[in-house]
Amino acid sequence: MTAVVTAHGVTKRFGDVTALDDVSFALAEHTIYGLLGRNGAGKTTLMQILTGQAFASSGKVSVFDAPPVENPAVLSKVCFVRESQRYPHVYTVRHVFRTARRLFANWDDTFAHGLAADFQLPAGRLVRKLSRGMLSALGVTVGLAARAPLTFFDEPYLGLDPAARQLFYDRLLADYAEYPRTVVLSTHLIDEVSDLIERVLLIDRGRLLLDEDADDLRGRAVAATGPAEAVDGFVAGRTELHRERLSGLVRSTILDGLGPHAKAHAKALNVELEPLSLQQLVVGLTAPPTTTAPADREAAR
Amino acid sequence: MNRIGQVARLQMPAWPQILGWTWGMTAVTFGINLLAFMANYDPGDGVRNTGGLISLYGIAIGMATISVNQIFPYALGMSVTRREFYLAWSLLAVVQSVVYALVLCLLRAVEQATGYWGMGMRYFGLPFMDDANPVLLLLGYAVPMLVVTHLGILLGTLYLRWGTTGVLTGLTLTFTALGLAAALITWTRQWHAIGRWLLDQSPAALLAGWPVLVAAAFAVGGYRLIRRATA
Questions:
Q1: Which structural domains are found in chain A, ordered by start?
Q2: In A, what residues contact B, Cβ < 8 A?
Q3: Distance from CA of B74 to the nearest CA of A (A)
Q4: Which of A53, A72, A87 sits opposite B230 (nearest CB)?
Q5: Interacting residues of A40 by C-beta distance below 8 A, sequence separation 6+
Q6: B133 exposed, middle or buried (CB, 10 Å; 0-12, 13-18, 19+)?
Q7: Residue B231 lies inside a defined structural domain of this protein
Q8: To which H or E segment does residue A62 belong?
């Protein structure tokens, strides 16, 4: 694999808070990544550091084989679309397109105007007068039409309605097929993008929990439900992510649960198995234990 | 260089506002000064200075600060480096200073041709530069403009780094330093020497020569601060 990005031991501290804690990974060329994690997990901070917009407290970042900070050669190949992007007060949608055309080498004006028409973006309107949905549409339009070899979308689809989001996913896939590049999507709408993303990076409280192929992950997590003792028997030797009690039964989220013998084993123990979606897996990995195990919380009082 | 030009053009959509407010407000202050002169007009007074032109330079500080604050976060989002942004804004400051200086030279010529607006009111003309050559005159207007524009950019950068606290702390420290320096000069009875030194300087050195150094100091400060700024 040709690495477009390598991060080694990236750590970011804001006073006492550690936003990123020793994060290491690599991003390959021509791949769509899902950067997943809860609010405040460190996703935006990580993308800001990768695009030279923020500074790591320690660790090493290399983008196209060079540090991205203040590096025009690297940044000319990078586009970072933020949900919270600030636009100048006097800018209209047309001004944004005009400046993007000058600043992004691969900018495709025809594509941009096609997308703007699809999203019904009014070219003459001031950006600060756009609705939330239109602001998101403007962001994804810039991100797609810039055709940067490395493109980050930081939840710009938050304001889009389901139909507009589908439009974005369709356009992204079609354009990606024609102009392959590395795309990082940070999102909470995991099930929506799970067919789109090829690889998953999951961060939680500043730490990288997963860096795996999306296909592998889809089959990896199962929920095992049954009487507590039976589930205990099944879980033994496997990685349990999460457990909840439901009226006498126990439901356990297990990683790597479905080997060739797993089904027979579960059946013998009277444990019911069901495969989990990517979203359920992420919830299982990142949900705080206190909110999902009321019985434990009672006991702790 | 081409890239710096492209980055500088990020300010283009804001030009109607910047020019409109700057020269609109200058027109208003000019009009008020003229009214005051008309109310007190006495042909025996000769030509008097108003000092009102200083407001144009004050407005330029504010415009530069606002411009940095409005456009830097957007530029960073469009994969522009902080260095490119700073050089572009410095270039804009130079262009703006020269263009404004040309306009002021023109207004000064009109002022002299109309017998100081018929009221003996020197508004645009600079004192002690009556017989300066055109180049010196242009520099006399442009260099102070360059100083205040870079001061505005520096204040904008302070705001980017540390918000209102940063700007207020910077101003407080500056006024404290200036006040202490004034006290020290008084204490050591040096005002007379400073006055003599100032009188020894040519108008060109006072309006153009020394201010270039001040502009350069502001530029270095702003550049160093912006290199660590985040949006």
A1: 3-205 (3.40.50.300), 219-300 (3.30.70)
A2: 48, 51-55, 70-72, 75-76, 78-80, 82, 85-92, 95, 99-100, 102-104, 148
A3: 5
A4: A53
A5: none
A6: exposed
A7: no
A8: strand A58-63
Q: Residue B82: CB partners within 8 Å, gap ≥ 6?
A: A70, B76, B226, B227, B229
ipTM (interface pTM): 0.90
Rounded to the nearest angstrom, the minimum Cα separation between B222 and chain A is: 16
Quick: pLDDT tens for A229-276. 899 888 888 888 888 888 889 988 887 756 777 888 888 888 888 888
Domain count, chain B: 1
How many CB atoms within 10 Å of residue B177?
10
- Could you tell me if residue B170 is inside a domain? yes
Distance from CA of A68 to the nearest CA of B (A): 10
* Domain of residue B208, residue span: 2-226
User: Residue B9 gets which letter from DSSP?
Assistant: G
> Hunting for tokens 């105007």 — which residue is that?
A113
DSSP A168-220: HHHHHHHHHHHS--EEEEE-S-HHHHTTT-SEEEEEETTEEEEEEEHHHHHHH
Q: Give A97-138 pLDDT, tens digit per residue.
A: 999 999 999 999 999 999 999 999 999 999 999 999 999 999
Q: Which residue of B has its CA nearest to A89?
A: B70
What is the per-residue pLDDT across A274-301, written as a single tens digit (0 to 9) for each?
888 888 888 888 877 544 444 444 444 4
